[in-house]
Amino acid sequence: MPQRPRSSARLRGTFDRVLVHDIKNMSFRLRLLLSNLYEHWADPDFRRAARDLLASSVERLESIAGRFLAHEGATLIKVELDLNGLLRQVAERPARRGARAAVSLALGTVPRVWGDPYYLSDAFTSLLENAFEAAAPEGRVLVRSYAGRSVNRPKAIVEFIDNGAGMSAEFLRDRLSRPFETTKPQGVGLGLATASQLVRFHRGTIRILSQPGGGTLVRLSLPGIPEGGS
What is the pLDDT of residue 69? Predict the structure, then answer.
């Protein structure tokens, strides 16, 4: 049976922050395009990149508007999900900018979970975009899944790993969980905050392992559906 959250107001607030995160990122990229327009317009590669950026921004804005209307009630609807299928869909979406890090998938056997595909997709997309931005265009991102186990039931583990600059212990301890805190100049610091809340709405946990110069690993753990159970 579909499950609903105890507080739809909290979910509505989380979804609104996801929208703000996307809009802020698009605003930054469009502002960057505008600042380089006159200097590089004669370059055909720049014009192609500008066209692609404008087209993807229009597509994303239309998607945001449509999803905002579709989720006015902000109700979490959980269905039985194949996480690996959802991860493939997120990883295969067109890039939101011209250059991005290379992504590899290492998807193992994981239990199915009860989840809202729209909101989990938002969480995975935010974490993947964060990893791309941290790794930079010449870097690499690995998305990995495997099965874990708690005392009473299986768990599905998903990891987003980048080989970027990493974060200090002080930042992880004191600032990472605050909205609008970020180590990336073009970031707005909402991707991880909103993803964490969405994971918690699914009775999951999220853990971040990082060190300066050593990249970052973001590990999600979601309760799985026992075989023959619910």
Answer: 56
For the stretch 77-136, pLDDT in tens is 789 999 999 999 998 876 544 446 788 999 999 999 999 888 898 889 888 888 888 887
Q: How far apart are CA 77 and CA 145, in angstroms?
A: 23
Phi, psi of 46 (to 5 degrees): -65, -40
CA 142 – CA 161 distance, rounded (Å):
5
Q: Which two tokens stand for residue 125?
A: 């997309």
Q: Give pLDDT, residue 147.
A: 95
Distance CA 121, CA 110 (A): 17
Length of the chain: 230
Q: What is the pTM of this model?
A: 0.65
Type of residue numbered 55: A
Report strand pairing: 113-115 vs 79-81. Answer: antiparallel
Largest CA distance in the chain: 63
Contact by Cβ (8 Å): 159, 145: yes
Handedness of CA 176, 177, 178, 184 (dihedral sign): positive
Closest CA to 133 of 173, 182, 177, 87: 182
Buried b (16+ CB within 10 A) or exposed e, 179-209: eebbbeeebbbbbbbbbbbbbebbebebeee
